[in-house]
């Protein structure tokens, strides 16, 4: 068994590319080895800012010999009068076999010529020489570049290449114009701590050899070291480290030999909002903040920061000093912006929103604010909020975008909403208004929390619904992976906010109301706007029920229907109900209750399609004629349906769907007697009046069950 090492040495790579390249190689390299019938014990992929590497251990020295069955031409074409035709001779020549090796076998399309071809295994070294350039050149990412006069593309210029099979160099050459990069065993150590080239003697010694040159090639080891060092340094200054996951993921791919360096800044800057200081540190400087362990402090931060250096640990004091100068300048800017912004109340920034374009066809952000105010009012009407809450909602809606034109948010866009909340509070706005200004942006991503206050929920819904209707109205629907306005995320947020807060909103009516207003304002709006939005939201509800609520796909189909207008409207009119019905169906499937009624209701549902009974009809007295009954089972079915009506109606009004299921379970034996047994009937009777009467009985049972779900969509478990 042999080991293979590949190292691609480059100039400093973007951190995001290093992360994705490792992930790509972890998938592609094992897959390509399997395609070549090469087994292996392990594939380890590593990366630093200056190199990508893979070590494959436990490779055989050559492929195993194998047999491959190859299908040739039809027998009628390959042979004539028992002799091979040119078609057979060509097949023999192409496959490198003899006439005696051919077999004729029957297939579904007639007799064909086959050959069982023996293929000797190739040397692993030959295969790796072919695969290596593909592994390098087929990496995907953003902003690839060319260098010199060649066409080879990579995020940064490739400067060296190592390909070792155990202790032997495997010849591989990358050509880019006049430049040739030939594989060798020479690598590069740390730029500062080991500037001399270094030799890798054997594939298996790669990691230890690099560590001697101050390169930690394994990102997992670097992560552990950074986490431990940051915590240790924070403790040394009496604080606790805050280690944002995104920052850690980025920093680990910016350094090859990490050293945690602590720096300080003037405590006077702690008067700034903590979010401003953290944004400067984390987003702009890639520093780790240090939190105070003293809860009585006015700021949650201590006047320290931790940076991860890729330089000489002996020069840490000098590195800290340089970073202190940088952060002082950034915090001084933030302090100036903060003080300047506070000189005028938040409302005074509203006129400046006229000059900020939301979307060229939709006007300014001030226009959007006007729409948010209007939609917020409609939502408040539906929720029947108190007068004080309505006032808070209107005030928060008016001010929710005002901070976009403050100096602080102009410089640090990440702080939108955060500064709006702060400025509103400092300006004397009610606490409910200030909180809502921040909350209306939530959730900002798939892992973010949802708004917790009613005011924030209403304004957030209004903002997101305005964006959805407006962008849809222009015909700019998301396609495939392209969703530049994050409309899927906005729709998901609308549904999740309604679900989490249990808001009794009629989304169907609201979308129609907003769409009508949009069309009246923008005459060139897309036709069938409401229908497009309804379908879009139904798809988001379907996805959320399956992916986040873990509801089986067929049960989701059963509550949402398939091109079922009644169910479509019902779902959008009451999102809380559709969620409860889906969760309840999943529960009764798991506890076995669903099985007790499934066969009978499903059979009735399928047969009822032959009739024409309205799916909303529940009253048997108006749709069934007892004088047409021929068997006692029909009369018993009819009486059972009469008794079922008040139970179904009670279940509808209280959403107590277990009451409905229990009632359906009670009627099941009666329906079974209608289908089977001594008093059973033939539903599709020759007499059309009797047939219609019996189909109406089944249709009524289907309709009662439809209060919960379309049982025709449920798959037997």
What do these coordinates show?
There is one protein chain. This protein is of the alpha+beta class and 717 residues long. Helices cover 49% and strands 15% of the residues. It is built from 25 helices and 20 strands. A five-stranded antiparallel beta sheet has the order 2-3-1-9-10, with helices on one face. Helix 10 crosses helix 15 (454-473), helix 16 packs across helix 18 and helix 17 (507-521) runs antiparallel to helix 18. The longest helix is centred in the middle third of the chain and has 26 residues, at 316-341. The radius of gyration is 35 Å and the shape is flat.
**β-strand amount:** 5-15%
Mean pLDDT, as a whole number? Answer: 95
Structural class by sheet pairing and helices: alpha+beta
How many strand segments?
Answer: 20
In angstroms, what separates the terminal alpha carbons? 49 Å
What is the number of helical segments per DSSP (H or I, 4+ residues)?
A: 25
Could you give a short account of the major beta sheet?
5 strands, antiparallel
Give the uncertain stretches in residue-range form. none
Helix content: 40-55%
Radius of gyration over alpha carbons?
Answer: 35 Å
Strands side by side in the biggest sheet: 2-3-1-9-10
**Could you say which overall geometry the principal axes of the C-alpha atoms support?**
flat
Helix and strand topology:
Blueprint: E1 2-10, H1 15-35, E2 42-48, E3 51-59, E4 66-74, H2 75-78, E5 79-80, E6 83-84, H3 86-95, E7 102-107, E8 110-119, H4 124-137, E9 158-165, E10 168-169, E11 173-176, E12 179-182, E13 186-188, E14 197-199, H5 206-212, H6 219-236, E15 239-241, H7 245-251, E16 259-264, H8 274-285, E17 288-292, E18 301-309, H9 316-341, E19 357-359, E20 363-364, H10 365-383, H11 387-399, H12 407-411, H13 418-426, H14 431-439, H15 454-473, H16 487-501, H17 507-521, H18 529-547, H19 553-560, H20 565-573, H21 575-590, H22 593-608, H23 632-654, H24 657-675, H25 688-706
Antiparallel strand pairs: 1-3, 1-9, 2-3, 4-8, 5-6, 7-8, 9-10, 11-12, 13-14, 15-17, 16-18, 17-18, 19-20
Helix pairs in contact: 8-9, 10-11, 10-15, 11-14, 11-15, 13-14, 14-15, 15-16, 15-17, 16-18, 17-18, 18-19, 18-20, 19-21, 22-24, 22-25, 23-24, 23-25
